[in-house]
Amino acid sequence: MSKKHIEIMDTTLRDGEQTSGVSFSASEKLTIAKLLLEELKVDRIEIASARVSEGEFQAVKNITNWASENDYLDHVEVLTFVDNGISIDWMIEAGAKVQNLLTKGSLNHLTYQLKKTPNQHFSDIKENIALAKSKGIETNIYLEDWSNGMRNSKDYVFEFLEFLATQPVKRVMLPDTLGVLTPSESYEFIKEIKDKYPNTHFDFHTHNDYDLGVSNAIEGIKAGADGLHLTINGMGERAGNAPMASTIAVINDYLPDVTINANEKALYTVSKLVENFSGILIPANKPIVGANVFTQTAGIHADGDNKNNLYFSDLMPERFGRKRQYALGKSSGKANIQKNLQELGLQLNDDALKKVTQRIIELGDKKQVVTKEDLPYIISDVLDRTYEEKVTVNNYVLTHSKGLKPSTTVSITIEGETFEENAQGDGQFDAFMNALRSIFKKKKMVLPALIDYAVRIPPGSNSDALCETIITWKSDTKEFKTRGLDSDQTVSAIIATEKMLNIITN
Ligand SMILES: CC(C)C(=O)C(=O)O
Questions:
Q1: 438 domain-assigned
Q2: How does pLDDT run across 365-379, given as a tens digit for each residue?
Q3: Which atom of ligand 1 lies at the shortest distance from residue 142's CA?
Q4: CA separation for the pair 101, 83 (Å, rounded)
Q5: pTM for this prediction
């Protein structure tokens, strides 16, 4: 059986821009349009509604200039209105060649919004299509609120389709304007229409109000739809449209008799660009493009990946230009750590791996996720501890207040004996060091001088990142460094200091 080609029309720049709070600049629209057609390779793009604004006019002009130089002009569409040809003139001036004419697909909309009869509406549409044709403009036609039309005024919808069969219309576009259809209705309605008009091209335009945008789109294709309207990251009016990435993945994996031109590998790049330009952040768990969707967190999954790829599915990250990651945290376990070490080209013996795992669990308890970039720092921190632990910092209180000197109370144990001391200082860490000096004075020991104190965070970290403090100490006999690692900077300095205390008492 020959496969059926489904057209993908991207409407990120029209319906997507109807996401509340989103407005793309002309140059952003041009950049997105180029990526959509050249990299993602969608068949068509809808780039604006006619007559919206001067800025929108310029945006359309920029895209049509570029499209005509690159043979894409027939793939660029503008939404127009039944307005005595004003929209048509607007789009012609902006250089566009294809109109997506917005008409009424339910009797309710026609009666209460346009206040017209079906015949009056059809006559206006006929005039519009003829005018467009005479000016070299191709027409696709939207039947707005078509889904409710099928539910409540089916006779009107079929009368409309009968009229359209006589018109030079390239595509009939069926929107589920309010996102109310169920998957079974989507199938049933489109099948009924396609059975009656097998030679007409029907696009299906779904919305995601019940989170059924993708399922409905897929059922629409199964029922015979010839094209789909999708948006990057599922942007669009209200809850948005069917998202490009997951719809494409479902088509490729579950509809073997269907072909599409869209290139999966470009999905992530386009999604990130649109995220940036729109300011609408991609949720971390958004299928295909979310930050976490190819990250295994539970150690049992990483372990299973090592054993015959037990936790793999067809949804491999590489298909979308992404990579599988293994999270580091409380529940990650040794297998996740090994996977990250492999990626960094590092090897640890069993004992070291055990210590690193333990430290990651401790850190995970505080910070939940430790990144791959943190790993070398954690390893240095843990493997630094080559001494017998004779000194333990048990507890401390550090105060910081306006107009008063920072102060501390510290409790430490030195070889089984516990000491507690209060002190003040120029800063919290200085106060902590003063308390230690007093304690060690009792033991007739002088602490080494602190000669350098450096703080850094692993590359690519954010504000809740781990923080590494490296302190250089100088005693009468030697100069040495210790490091501490924690999500809190003062705590990391205290860990480095505890190491120093152990070095001098060993
Ligand atoms: C403007 C129209 C075509 C639309 O996006 C819809 O009905 O969903």
A1: yes
A2: 775 567 787 788 888
A3: 3
A4: 10
A5: 0.81
